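Are you able to produce any protein sequence you like plus the matching backbone structure tokens because I've never seen that pairing?
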Amino acid sequence: TNCDVHNNAICQTCVSNYHLAGNNSACYQNIENCDTYADALCAICKTDYNLSTNKSNCYPKIENCAQQIDTLCDSCSSGYHLSSDNSTCFVNIAFCTSYNNSDCLTCDSTHQLSTDSSTCYSKIAKCFDQENAICNQCNSGYHVSSNKTSCFPDNIQYCVAYNDAKCTQCDVLHFLNADGSGCTIPIPNCL
């Protein structure tokens, strides 16, 4: 059946959407995106398609999937991780230790998760309130650098305002050194 042209008991060509069996004895329905047949089954799918385990379907290849079984990915290529439904491989985020699809849920102990869950930023030492790569507030006894990417110690006695490691203002009882390295007591009767 489904033979278009016969020559004695041998089929020469099949009707549309059918292919000829290897021994020319039968016509089998085509499998979408199959390139090479073995009778009723597909032996090789077209480029960018993956052969099903029962050889009766050709499914689109899952990009960056190392081991695809039918429509699902069993494992992704190096540098990628699986979606929760095993249908997609997402690129890994550096220093991320757990994922929810493309989003990072947790970073390793030396990194902090970005507000949009897409990046793990290095933790800023002595920072109390870090948002992405910016420190908004340092721990007690420290102040935020001018570019907000580090914390400097409040280690200049009598200094009330800093610019990075230098003092910019001393308390009312002390004078600022010219180089900002300290606050000095005024010498009596000295102008």
About this structure: DSSP finds no helices and 24 strands in the chain.
